[in-house]
Amino acid sequence: MDKITGIIAEFNPFHNGHQLLLDQAEGTKVIVMSGNWMQRGEPAFVDKWTRTEMALRAGADLVVELPVMSALQGADFFAEGAVRILNQLAVDEILFGSESELDYQRISEIYAENADEMKAYMAELPELMAYPLKAEKAWAHFAGVRFDGGTPNHILGLAYAKAVMGTNIQLRTIKRETGYNDTKLAGQVASATAIRENFSQARDFIPSESWALLEVAAQTGWPDFWEFLRYKITASTTLTHIYQVNEELSQRIKTYIKSSSNLSELIEQVYTKRYTKGHIRRLLTYILLDIPRDFKMPESIHVLGFSEKGQKVLAQARKREIPVATKIGKHPWDAVTQRADEIYRLGNPEIKEQSYRRRPIIWS
Fold first, then answer.
1. Which residues lie closer than 8 Å to 123 by C-beta, 6 or more apart?
2. pTM of the predicted model, to two decimals?
3. Mean pLDDT, to the nearest integer, of 207-220?
4. What is the domain-level CATH number for residue 42?
């Protein structure tokens, strides 16, 4: 079989920068894509099936879904979940964009040599210190690598370097020229954030075949879910049954929901030095989606779409007895993800069924 290149993505939505990444991928191109909820704690601009078709039209050979409880995590756990799937699918390399030109393969080797010491070092840092700051200090101490919240793709690159430890997967990067949160449309490549916020003027920044899908797709965003979240918080006696919500955060959220008129206002009032805005945004998404403290990750890989080359990757996975789900019927693929899909549909009544009896898109 040809070389298999893996890409971890959200495609929220698919744009020219994603096309450049796919164009530079070698051999069979396997995408692990977040479903209908994004890492930073927000609903997808358009649904996962629309984004899958965009990727297939742009040259992807296989698109599989990252379960919602891997997709809705900080960098380390997000990367761990995605790399696990790519390793099961026997990819040779992970290609990603980064603000840094760092040799991430070398960083992976450094981490492998110092993993236990890095974990011990972080455990000794003050308990009230936010996890991202602990990670930043550990990387600086052991590898001389520095970063901040303005380089999210670099942070993910470091997380990939940790996640590939113990596998045969190599890392390759291309330089990202646009900032993750840039809000202006300029040049030939714009960020997904800028495209979402300026969608009516974004046509030149999206491949024509993707634009044709986006123009007619049902769109949604956090404003469509605000009242659902407000009701959920107000109606609950406590929120401590929700994943990662402790008593302190439960009280803060329930107090400040009374004086907040939108998600941003609530986040501004709840976050602290220990609990970052990104963390609070994800917690509020957990509350909306009713994510319990105890949940099981799915054993099988959910397939969203494939080409003939992608089908060969799936065939090889089945030979290795990797469980693959291509149709969801009476028995759920992942109950947590499927419930999240049902809640996603509440954001726009035009969004079609996302799970039950949906079959992968076959691209030729």
1. none
2. 0.94
3. 95
4. 3.40.50.620
